[in-house]
Amino acid sequence: MALNILDNRGTPLDRQRFTWRDMVQKPISKLDDDAYTRVHIILNNGLEMEALRFSHACARMNKALQPVLAQLRRVEQHQATTINWLIGADHSPLETTIAYEQVAIDVTAGVALREPDPYLAQVYRFGLLEDFDHMHRYSALLDRLEGKDANNILQSYTDILPGRPTVDEHRDPLDDLREHYDRTTAAPLSKLHALTIMAAEQQTHNYYMNVGPLFSDPMARLLYAEIASIEEQHTTQYESIIDPHESWLEKWVLHEATEVYNYHGCAMQETNPRIKALWERFLDYELGQLHVAIEHFQNIEKRDVAEILPAVLPDPIPITSQREFVRQVLAAEVDLRADGTQFVDKALENPRSIEYRRHLNSEGSPTELVAGGYRWRPGTELNVAKAA
What we know:
Layout: H1 20-23, H2 35-61, H3 66-84, H4 93-114, H5 118-146, H6 151-154, H7 188-211, H8 218-240, H9 248-269, H10 273-301, H11 323-333, E1 336-339, E2 342-345, H12 351-360, H13 366-370, H14 384-387
Antiparallel strand pairs: 1-2
Helix pairs in contact: 2-3, 2-4, 2-7, 2-9, 4-5, 4-7, 5-8, 5-11, 7-8, 7-9, 9-10
C-alpha cells in the first residue's frame, strides 16, 4: 500500500507521549516469534539510535534548531527504548549478535536488489558478502561457547556459510571510501537506502564494541574486536555514499523520511499483531516528526520539500529470505576487493591495503582461528540429557 507522506501528517508532536510501562513492554519470544519480527526490531532500533546521534550533532552546530530538536529527540529516545527492550533476556549476547548479522545480510540484500543506481547496488553487494562471513564466524563461536545451533535464531531463512573471508576484509581507510550520490539527481529511494544501511551498520558497530569486552573467553574477545573493526569500515563506507553537500535541514528531513519509510515497511510485513500495532503507532509519530522537519526546512531554506522528497514513498525494502540472491552474489563477487572508490579483482588490490592487512593479521586472525574446522550442520545443540 502506497503511503502519501505529504497528505498524512500523523500524530502531532505534543501528543507523542509515553509512560514507563509504554516503554518497557513484554519482550518477543526468542523461538516462537518469526525471526523477521526480531529483524524489524533491530533495524528500527538502529534507525532511532541514528536519529538521536544526528539530532545531537545537528543541535551542536545549529543554535536556532536546539529547542525543536530537543523536543523531537526526547520522543526518539523513548521510541528507541520501547523497541530495544523488546529483545528479551533469554537472548544471550551471542544470539543477539547472530540476529544482528541476519539484519545486515537480509536487509542489505533487499536494498541491493532494489537499488536503482548500479554503483550503489555494487557497494551494498560488496558489504553484504562481508557480513555474510561474519555470520559464519559468530555461528562457530556460538557452537563453541554455548553449544547452540545458530539456526534456532535464523529459522532457516539465512545460510550459514563462509563469505569473503574476514581476514581479507581489513583495508586501508582510503579504500573504504566510496563515491557519493548526487543530491540533485539521485532517486529518493537511493537516499532512503543509504541512510537505512548506514544506521544499521553503525548500530552493529556500537553493539559489538559494547558487548565484546564483557566476554571472559579470550577467543570471543578477540573475535568481537576483529569484526567490530570491519563494522567501523562498513560505517565509513556507507556514510561516504551520502552526499556531504546536503544541508543540515535537508539531512534532517531525509532522516525523518527514512524512519517513516521503514516503519511503514515493517508494519506491512510484520506477522506479530502486537508488534505490528507498535510499528503503526510509531509510523504515525514519525509522520508528525517529519512534518515538523519539513516546516523548518521550508521556512528557513525557502525551498519546497518536493525538491528532495516524493509525495508517495517508494515500495518498502523486502525484508525476507534472500538466500538465492546471496548465493549468486557469493559465487560472482567473493573475490572483489577495493581500490579507492572502485571495486577490482583481488589480483589488482591496492598495495596499501595489503600491507595494512599484513601487519594487522601478523599475530593471527581471530576469525580464522574460531572457524577452523567448523562447518555448520543442523542439530549441533548440546544434548542436555547426555551432558548431565
